[in-house]
Amino acid sequence: MFQYAFISVYILFTTGGLILMKMGNNAGTLAIQNSTVNFSVNIISLLGLIMYIISFLMFTKIITTYDLSYIYPMLAGIVQTLSLLAAVFILKENITWFGAVGIALVIIGIIIMNINKVGA
């Protein structure tokens, strides 16, 4: 049960981090002046960056625990699907016909990958 919760939190942090960085609309600035490093970013983008870094650390644990050929395509598909849906519903971005077909294909692929897992 813990494994599903850990993977769910990873998906939430990855998708949330991407959406918050986009909402923050600020790539940040990095400057070196007089041997001093200055970094500035708004709070929404910073929160998104922190979430995304945490998700990366979680991802390193996930890929060392599970079969890479199975877990990576599945997680990538889920994150891409949720990111697109969040962009449509939260950021009010438009989805194209090709985007909708792509999401359908990703979902079909995830289902096909898990057909043998359900019976096991």
Could you walk me through the main structural features you see in this protein, from its secondary elements to its overall organization?
With 120 residues, this protein is mainly alpha-helical. It has one domain (2-119). It has helices at 2-24, 43-65, 68-89, 97-119, and strands at 29-33, 36-40. The chain has a two-stranded antiparallel ribbon. Helix 1 (2-24) runs antiparallel to helix 2, helix 1 (2-24) packs across helix 3 and helix 3 (68-89) crosses helix 4.
Name a few traits of the molecule.
120 residues; mainly alpha; single chain
Helix content: over 70%
Helix-strand sequence: HEEHHH
Summarize model confidence as the mean pLDDT.
87
How is the quaternary structure best described? Answer: single chain
Give the strand order of the largest sheet, numbering strands 1, 2, ... along the chain.
Answer: 1-2
Query: What summary fits the major beta sheet?
Result: 2 strands, antiparallel
Distance between the termini: 17 Å
Low-pLDDT regions? none
